[in-house]
């Protein structure tokens, strides 16, 4: 797994809205990188919609967001739209997931907390979209906060499928850097 203080692996690709995005081009800004599962996951739908709704708070703090999912561009765009400061990347082949050593774990699928947050997401109206299950169902979220030079200042590899930072947690961690 990656560690605090190391230079982040490069991400250089077009977002789902065809905007070119790279870590190099974002130097001078803090960058929040979030790895999530596939677009049909109810937990992902709930958490990503919260990010989209609250991205303006990160923008105000000078933080850009790169969100990666192991889904196709078509399936991502059916559920999510980019907003100012938020770039969504379709990484169906999991190329960036591998670079950042993001975990895939069948064991974590059976974690009680995974099912608790899955049912909580469904209670909020986010249901599994079985036609959009891509890249396997065992992806575990991971979060990285980069400083203005592209170094990893904070990171979190999730312990279950819903274990990822909220926007409030990102802002708190960014203020510590």
What does this structure look like?
This protein has a single domain (30-176), classed as Glutaredoxin (3-Layer(aba) Sandwich), CATH 3.40.30. Helix 1 (42-60) crosses helix 5 (112-123). It is globular. Strand 6 (142-146) and strand 7 form a beta hairpin. It has a 5-stranded mixed β-sheet with strand order 5-4-3-6-7. By secondary structure, it is an alpha/beta fold. The protein has helices spanning 42-60, 73-77, 95-99, 106-109, 112-123, 167-176; strands spanning 12-14, 20-22, 30-36, 63-69, 86-90, 142-146, 152-157. The model has no long low-confidence stretch (mean pLDDT 93).
Number of domains: 1
Total helix count? Answer: 6
| Helix fraction bin | 25-40%
> What best-fitting shape do the alpha-carbon axes yield?
globular
- The SSE order reads EEEHEHEHHHEEH
How are the elements arranged and paired?
Blueprint: E1 12-14, E2 20-22, E3 30-36, H1 42-60, E4 63-69, H2 73-77, E5 86-90, H3 95-99, H4 106-109, H5 112-123, E6 142-146, E7 152-157, H6 167-176
Parallel strand pairs: 3-4, 4-5
Antiparallel strand pairs: 1-2, 3-6, 6-7
List descriptors:
five-stranded mixed β-sheet; alpha/beta; two-stranded antiparallel ribbon; 7 strands; 6 helices; 177 residues; Glutaredoxin
In short:
By secondary structure, the protein is α/β, with parallel strands linked by helices. The chain has six helices and seven strands; from the N terminus they run E-E-E-H-E-H-E-H-H-H-E-E-H.
């Amino acid at each position: 797994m990656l560690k605090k203080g190391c230079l982040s692996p490069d991400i250089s690709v077009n977002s789902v809205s065809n905007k070119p995005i790279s870590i190099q081009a974002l130097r001078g800004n803090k960058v929040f990188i979030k790895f999530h599962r596939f677009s049909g996951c109810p937990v992902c739908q709930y958490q990503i919609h919260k990010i989209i709704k609250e991205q303006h708070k990160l923008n105000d703090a000078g933080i850009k967001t790169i969100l990666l999912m192991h889904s196709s561009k078509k399936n991502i765009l059916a559920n999510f739209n980019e907003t100012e400061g938020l770039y969504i990347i379709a990484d169906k082949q999991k190329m960036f997931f591998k670079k950042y050593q993001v975990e895939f774990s069948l064991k974590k699928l059976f974690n009680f907390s995974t099912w608790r947050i899955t049912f909580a997401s469904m209670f909020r109206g986010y249901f599994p979209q079985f036609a959009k299950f891509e890249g396997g169902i065992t992806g575990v979220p991971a979060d990285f906060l980069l400083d203005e030079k592209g170094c990893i200042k904070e990171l979190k590899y999730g312990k279950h499928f819903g274990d990822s930072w909220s926007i409030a947690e990102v802002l708190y961690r960014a203020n510590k850097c």
